[in-house]
Each structure stands twice: as structure tokens, then as C-alpha cells.
Amino acid sequence: MTERIEHLEFLRDKFKGFAKNIIILTGKMNKKERRTELVRLANIPDNEERLIIATGKYIGEGFDDPRLDTLFLAMPISWKGTLQQYVGRLHRIHSNKQEVKVFDYVDGHVPVLKTMFEKRQSGYKSLGYVSLNNKENNSTEQMQLF
């Protein structure tokens, strides 16, 4: 999830050829485009991977796909209510869902972004999430996918 259309397009282009079913959802799409993507999403069998790249404003309210089990948060937010809204999309009941995961990306070299991340950590804790972030796991390395 991101807030910038340019970032969304960048991610879509990077995942083309890597992810099987890429679904794009933004509030800027017209009704026909949005309907087409939602029908594509609904028609993906439960046992097939799907990658939804969307803006927070679109996914944040009114979106429901109980199969969602993972969130990659690639934008800075700090308010607990927004965080709760976004991760709440993962907590719909589905027979194939074992657990939910949130991957939260932060640029710790930018003080304001680091502060926002720290506020999110408090929000995650109040929502019952367990952080796997520790000294051994706190790495700036990223797997090279592309």
C-alpha cells in the first residue's frame, strides 16, 4: 500500500513478470477500470497468488477481500486510527487464512519518518501485534528481486 500514484506505478512495473496476478486499485481510476480490476480479483482462485497494489485512500474504506493476509506498508503514517483501518483489512475471516503479517518499511535515516514509524510501533502493540524486529533482525539489507 502506498499513497503516491507514481510509487504505485513504479511498484507495478517492478513486479511485472515476477508476480502472477497484479491488481491495481486507486481512487483515481474511473468506475469501469475499477470494476474490471475488482472482477479480476474476485476471479482469482484462492490457491493462486495475488498482489494488490493500491493507495491507502482506496483500500482504507469500503474494500473487502477476506483472503488478504499480508500488508506491505510502503508509506509513512502515524495515526493509530489509520493504521487500525489498514491492518483491519487483514482480519476478515477466511478458511485458508492461518496468520496475518505486516511488513512495515521505514527510512530510519529521516528523523520525521523514524518518529512516525515509532508511533506505528505503539499502534501495532495496542492492536495485539507482535513485532519480530530485534537487534539481530534489524537490517537495512533487502533481497534483490529485480
Report on the structure:
The protein has five helices and four strands, in the order αβαβαβαβα. It has 146 residues and is of the alpha/beta class. The protein has two domains: 1-52, no CATH class; 64-135, no CATH class. The strands form two sheets. The protein has a two-stranded parallel sheet. The longest helix has 16 residues, at 111-126.
Observed structural traits:
5 helices, about 150 residues, globular, two-stranded parallel ribbon
Unreliable sequence segments: 141-146
- So how many helices? 5
Number of domains: 2
Question: What level of helicity do the residues show?
Answer: 25-40%
Question: How many whole angstroms does the radius of gyration measure?
Answer: 16 Å
Protein name: Type III restriction protein res subunit
Summarize the structure.
This protein folds into 2 domains: 1-52, no CATH class; 64-135, no CATH class. The chain has 5 helices and 4 strands, in the order H-E-H-E-H-E-H-E-H. It has helices at 5-15, 31-42, 56-60, 80-88, 111-126, and strands at 22-25, 51-54, 70-73, 101-104.
Write the layout of secondary structure elements.
Blueprint: H1 5-15, E1 22-25, H2 31-42, E2 51-54, H3 56-60, E3 70-73, H4 80-88, E4 101-104, H5 111-126
Pfam family, one: Helicase_C
Domain Helicase C-terminal: 4-93
Organism: Neobacillus vireti LMG 21834
